[in-house]
Amino acid sequence: MLSVIIPVYNERETIRPLFEKTAEVLGKIGHPWEVLFINDGSVDGSEEELNAVASENETVKVLHFRRNYGQTAAMMAGFDHARGEVIIPMDGDYQNDPEDIPRMLAKLDEGYDVVSGWRRDRQDNAIKRNLPSIMANKLIAFVSGVRLQDFGCSLKAYRREVIEGVRLYGEMHRFLPVYTSWHGAKITEVVVGHFARRAGKSKYGLERILKVLLDLMVVKFLDRHAQKPMYVFGICGFLMMAIAGLFALWAVWLNLVEGKPFITTPLPVLTVSTFMTGVICVLMGLLAEMITRTFYESQGKRIYLVRERRNLPPPTA
Questions:
Q1: How large is the greatest C-alpha to C-alpha distance in the chain, in angstroms?
Q2: What are residue 271's DSSP bridge partners?
Q3: Which band of pLDDT confidence, cut at 50, 70 and 90, is reported for residue 200?
Q4: What global pTM score does this model have?
Q5: What is the rounded distance in angstroms from the CA atom of residue 18 to the CA atom of residue 235?
Q6: Which alpha helices (DSSP H) does the chain contain, by range?
Q7: Cβ atoms 193, 153 nearer than 8 A
Q8: 145 CB-side CA count, 13 A
Q9: How is the chain split into domains, by residue range?
């Protein structure tokens, strides 16, 4: 079965035409399918339109949030409720082209686990949307090592097994290919169509740049140090202690060589404050280590993932 996930926030005018086109495309594929609309707290009549479409089509499933939680939460809800072996998220503003879905499925049949859309001819504002997106994509690709041109394109195709167990928070949906790469997923990218917005207005602005940078810091930390946070906090702690030692030596040198009393310079205060900062960093590292062990051991989680088994019994729950 194929599951198409469509988060919706104030997109009443595009819901029906988007579903009709998606249903037309999916109907030609020859596999069972479902479309999950996630109403992310819309206030423009989207709820009534979604209910009307669902009442007319059994293949349509709808989740209504109590309030607006954001695209990541809507995407996560779709993953949680999807029944398909292949899951395809796409935007609810009808800027993605459903006609690209068969080509993405064909790529999955070639052995890929994730097929990401690339809006090469993007129909958005060049300054507010396109330029920040290009910068963010290059930065994410450089830091994460996942070589994609367009992380922000919602239209992607995932095999269920590579996203099972992945939990998304904040605005981490754009980093989902990075998460799947941690699970050993084979990722490729295809050029997809992109339409100009037909109705409504964009929910994103230039403030996304800062959010991307902060989220990228989290992703990089989780990638490199989630299982050993002491390496980060400990290195920072010892670095601060070393700086405190230099301040102390400087203060002593000024006192012995130039005859300046300790109270005439800020160096003693800097020494103490920097040293205590280092101590706090080390203690935070120890606390993070305890939290990491609690995370894995309390839930029975393993620190590794097995791709395939040969002549071994299936894992127990």
A1: 89
A2: none
A3: low
A4: 0.73
A5: 52
A6: 12-27, 46-56, 71-81, 101-109, 131-144, 160-163, 176-182, 208-225, 230-257, 267-298
A7: no
A8: 8
A9: 2-225, 230-298
